[in-house]
Amino acid sequence: MKLKKLGAIDIGSNSVRLLITNVIHEPTKGYTYYKKSSMIRLPIRLGADSFMKGKITRSNRQRMLEGMKAYESIMKVHGVEDYRACATSAMREAVNGQKLVKKIKKATGINIEIIDGEEEARLIFESKLFDRVQPAESRFLYIDVGGGSTELTLLEGGDIVTSRSFKVGTVRLLNQMDTASEWVEMKTWIEQNVTPGSDLAMIGSGGNINKLHKMSGKKINEPLTMRYLNAQAKILSALTRDEKVTELGLNFDRADVIEPALSIYKSAMQWAHSRHMYVPKIGVSDGIVRDLYHRKYKDELEG
Q1: How many structural domains compose the chain?
Q2: Cα separation of 204 and 191, whole Å?
């Protein structure tokens, strides 16, 4: 058995995650396993700064620095051999994003890449969306809802047909920073690129849809229906933020964004005329690990 311990840092608009994964190759079986060793999530809402003020504020810059120092130490303790750190829309749109990247690099040695929507979609596709759910359909509209953007990707036969990133996200909606024109653009894109049919299903990713799937009690290969999403929207709308925390067990930084997220998922599902949505519970960090392994270590372990 051969092992590589790899790390992925996903710097989003609503939180910052560190995933540590044991990549295990079993030569006798000819199979490679990806086993999560640790997942840590820091509730640093960079999007609230970036989308409203155009820059990361001093307090969040300091929190980011302390968080990256902690992640550096955690990766050392776990014996992480290699990692990749990626930042998405909040850091892309902040005028001082690159300056913060340099400061973190100097203080911790962690090199952060600010990636575009296309690379973000590619990394998510690398996470092997279908391995966990094994759907019967052959065409899929993949949707990843983040704090600052929504990534849409049309998949047919396991291949990417087309993809697009839209500036519609939970933190933007929460702070009324979304625009009607961007919603129209997203609706038009779906209607022009997605042909409705029984062979079409949605695949959703993101912390909010993962939480909604967990709340449903369904197995990982069982999709969510529009009926269920509508019912949850009704329940959530009747609760205050505090009640969502105490009665539903949501984290504080999840309680205020889950409704905006749900509205985005429901809209895309409605526009695509899809009946259900699979939730494999994967994301950018999973894709980062797989992409890193295949680019740098696959030949070493499997050769």
Answers
A1: 2
A2: 18
